[in-house]
Amino acid sequence: MSDLSQRRVGGRVRLVDPTGRPLAGARARVEQTAHAFGFGNIGFDFIEWIAGAPDIEGARELEHFGGALALDPERLAADYLELFNAVTLPFYWRGYEPRRGQTDEARLKRTAEWFAARDVQIKGHPLVWHTLTPSWLLDLSDTEVEDVLRDRVHTTVANFAGVIDLWDAINEAVILPVFTAEENAVTRLAQSKGRVEMVKLAFESAREANPDARLVLNDFDLSADYERLIADCLDAGIQIDALGVQTHMHQGFRGEEQIAHILERFAAFGLPLQMTETTLLSGEIMPPEIVDLNDYIVDEWPSTPEGEARQADEIVRHYRTVLAHPAVESLTYWGITDHGAWLGAPAGLLRADGSRKPAYDALHSLIRGEWWVGPTDLTADADGIVAIDGFAGRYRVDSGAASAVVELTDATPVEIVVDPDAR
């Protein structure tokens, strides 16, 4: 079993009276209310339910690239919030600005605010990407494309500052200059500027718009090419806040050893890691000879009992492996439901009808079971210390005479003043 000891904080809460005297032997009820680690998923399915249908032709593509309006949105939302504390929202340019100057900002902002009100960490994805760029870009010169792209990044980040302060600044830059699946102006620009300059464009434009933003370099290409790009970007002085590592495992679980090796390689850069896009199938595995996952097209791709059992086993093994590495700060699963899933793959944790797969229950037993504290009754020691052995995160401590919510990230005592006369 993976060693997750580095995730446990050995939290300490000191109960004292108004004079500062430790309350030895005082009783307290402790209950965890949130994880510090980011357990995420995509929120594409919720946009139309929360913010209404798009009023710009073409904007609905936002939802359909790995999500769709749920059959029962309220039930889906309850299942989501029961498990996840982080969400990725889509800012694919073709859907976000299908006509130049007309954006889907209002709906995305309403959706982001809905998640923020429920204490969910929000990431925007992505600011720069060659796929799903608007067709109107093709009529512009490279100089005009660069100007428009810089403005797109700057304006989007600025307008969402304070609501979304975490972004995949650029997506899949390794393949960017050599992408051939469809003609697009961003690849054309990258062919003249090069990968590092494109990364610099994305990061600098976003940083100028919101100096407090955290910006991620994200890629599916986990070869040495990605390592070289990271090194070149750091050598060029680009401030990268975290490295994104995609693991769409449509062709089968990579296994604990391979995942651990991947994490070790990218942790060597000394930056936090985000497992940005993870999928595990509960149906037939995609054939190994497929190079581009988008090239696998079938009429039906059902979830099966055998596949669901396999997915549940693999998701537990994957999450344990990822959390065992101290460099990883979040893991985002790519799709909560099979309804409208990316590529039609049975990768969701819920079936298309909204019922829970074994993988949902297995993950729930970790996040809200094995890795969760409380409610439990504890007794303070002679120094008034209530010792909490749990994962880093937020806890509610109730002594009866005082109640407080505290963030526990290490063993430094958090003090709660208890007034016995207030009982």
TrEMBL record:
UniProt cross-references to Gene3D superfamilies, sorted A to Z: Glycosidases
Domain spans labelled GH10: 50-366
SMART domains with a match to the protein in the record: Glyco_10
Enzyme class at the top of the EC tree: hydrolase
Keywords: Carbohydrate metabolism, Glycosidase, Hydrolase, Polysaccharide degradation, Signal, Xylan degradation
Assigned EC number: 3.2.1.8
A Pfam family of this chain: Glyco_hydro_10
Record's catalysed reaction(s): Endohydrolysis of (1->4)-beta-D-xylosidic linkages in xylans
Regions annotated as coiled coil: none
UniProt family annotation: Belongs to the glycosyl hydrolase 10 (cellulase F) family.
UniProt protein name: Beta-xylanase
Organism: Microbacterium mcarthurae
